[in-house]
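Field reference: sequence -> structure
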Amino acid sequence: MKGCGLCWTEAELALLDGDPALVPDEVVWQFAWEVEDHFEPDEYGPAWRRLAHRVVGLLTEDPDSRLTMGLTWAGFSHWPEAERTALYAQVTDIVLRAASDEERHKDLGELIEAAAQLDQSMVPWLRLVDTLPDEVVEHLAEEWSDCDKASSTFGTWLRWTDPTPQDEVLEWLSTR
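Structure field:
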């Protein structure tokens, strides 16, 4: 795989081009955080397809919506349906496990923002939130209540518009 020589060693690029199971978590993390123009355009999407399940697995340990930001650049909406479905299932499972563990409720907002990168929309994930126990819904409503304020960290890595992630959440909050 070809990539930015300032950001990547030849050894790391070789790992990214090989068996995903052999890529260290730190390299998977760095890849997910990296912008697409640090790689050859025809290699970025295939690398994401190889590493997507590893990237999403990192969300379990350290929820971060920036980890899934590259899915848009990788053309996720055009991946084969089976691959998209499998990734949705993995992300949904991570969100539901966090929702069922009170100690992980603090991670839920960030996890749902990471999940929303798959659709470039909060709406499907807000529908999932509506199926969760009341205390979880209340926790998220409280967390996101200031999402439209300049001081809010909500949606830092959510880049879509029309409507914005903030607009989608504000609409959801208005139904509470």
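Note: The two ends are 48 Å apart (CA to CA).
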